Amino acid sequence: MTKLVCVHSYRGGTGKSNIVANLAVLLAQRGRRVGIIDTDIRSPGIHALFGLERAEIHASLNDYLWGKCLIEQAALDVTPSVASPGPGGAVFLVPCSMRAGEIARILKEGYAVERLNDGMQILSEALDLDILLIDTHPGVNEETLLSIAISDSVLFVLRPDHQDYQGTAVTLELAHRLEVSQLLLVVNKVLETTDQDGLAEKIVTAFQTPVAAVLPLTEDLVRLGSGGVLASLRPEADYVRRLHAVVGLIDDAAARPNAVT
């Protein structure tokens, strides 16, 4: 049975999509079949991390939501971008459209949110996924609440910033009301000079929610400029090493028989 993992942040610029892409690669290296669905329809971008150009995206989540294709027809196999996947490991991405007219149509007309829910279930079964990562639009809206409500785990990504703290408190409260099974915090873009253990302890105390990882503000990602996935290109990087802790928390204990753990 597919485990649904929603990755969310209250504001943009937290590095959420980079975290999603790197988690997908690390899970595939463990031998998991991983899906990513980009529900940030207003400002899509995770496809760039896997080296996909707009011309390569022949079908998108938008097309599925408008009834133009099946959800699995919009899924692209990006496993070739994964360095050393484990036996059976794979990554599939359902991107959003980058065409300005289609983004404008979504903003103007919207879509049936229930269809998005159905698509996640269909995609999971069609591709026999172990884990489906949902890259959400920042903030609180109808599709984000739906993604949180149907998820087995929710990762809230925040920076050490007072606006992030206040917004995360709001979304955490909503997730508690929706009775999500597993809530985790990932603190990103933390300066190397910061007492990271002390910061994690303060955040756990403030939010009464486990901190899965404290990730450094790293030049590695700045140099990449969204031109690749760090876990594939520099698996020894501290950022990647710290993400292994997150993978260990969200990865299903009932792993596939041929999976590498």
Automatic annotation (TrEMBL):
BP GO annotations: negative regulation of cell division
Keyword Chaperone appears in the UniProt entry: no
Gene Ontology annotations for the cellular component aspect, listed alphabetically: cytoplasmic side of plasma membrane; cytosol
Family matches, as InterPro entries: P-loop_NTPase, ParA/MinD_ATPase, YlxH/NBP35
Pfam families xrefs: ParA
Keywords: ATP-binding, Cell projection, Cilium, Flagellum, Nucleotide-binding
One MF term in the entry's GO annotations: ATP binding
PANTHER family: ATPASE INVOLVED IN CHROMOSOME PARTITIONING, PARA_MIND FAMILY (PTHR43384:SF10), SEPTUM SITE-DETERMINING PROTEIN MIND HOMOLOG, CHLOROPLASTIC-RELATED (PTHR43384)
Full protein name: MinD-like ATPase involved in chromosome partitioning or flagellar assembly
Organism field: Pseudoxanthobacter soli DSM 19599
